[in-house]
Amino acid sequence: MTSVAGFGFRHGATLASLRDALAQALAAAAATALTTATEPTGPTDPTTATTPPMATATLRPIVLFAAPQDKADAACLRALADELGLPVHAVEATVLNATPTLTDSARVRALRGSGSSAEAAALAAALLHGGPGARLLHPRAVSTDRLATCAIATCAVTTPAPQPTLES
Asked: What's the pTM?
């Protein structure tokens, strides 16, 4: 596992909405990777930190999409997943709500119980599939039409893909 793209979206979001949110999230993740690669390293003062630390690794390929369970079968998300040949992980509401996010939208929290569906879905799936070193690379990115959001989480350790076994 390397990186997970998590999505949140409103009713009425289209394939173009999700494509745009993904493109903006990838651009934000790449910019974060470039910025953190050139920043000096050292301890962070925990009294001034307002969000969890961002990942400092370079951007890794997206290998999985994630979304809240009630949105995972939406036609727009399935179309994007099929187009890119990626599986979709459905995140249960209780897991989504227990996963910390960088963004805390009052509107989304009131509707869904999480500060950001996209961030929580990305991080929850990355933690499940990649282990405790998973981190969000950036706050969610919002599509131009404001109907979709996307966030990228990365795993600190990559897990090898399962290899087929030959049975005799």
From this structure: 0.77
Segment 91-114, tens digit of pLDDT:
999 999 999 999 888 888 888 889
The answer to whether residue 59 sits within a structural domain is: yes
Residue 43 counted as domain residue: no
Task: Give domain status of residue 113, yes or no.
Answer: yes
Question: What angle is formed at CA 32 by the lines to CA 39 and CA 18, rounded to 5 degrees?
Answer: 180
**58 close to 81: Cβ distance less than 8 angstroms:** no
Number of Cβ atoms within 10 Å of the Cβ of 57: 17
Tell me the pLDDT tens digit for each residue of 55-80. 344 557 899 999 999 999 999 999 99
Give the CATH number for residue 126. 3.30.420.180
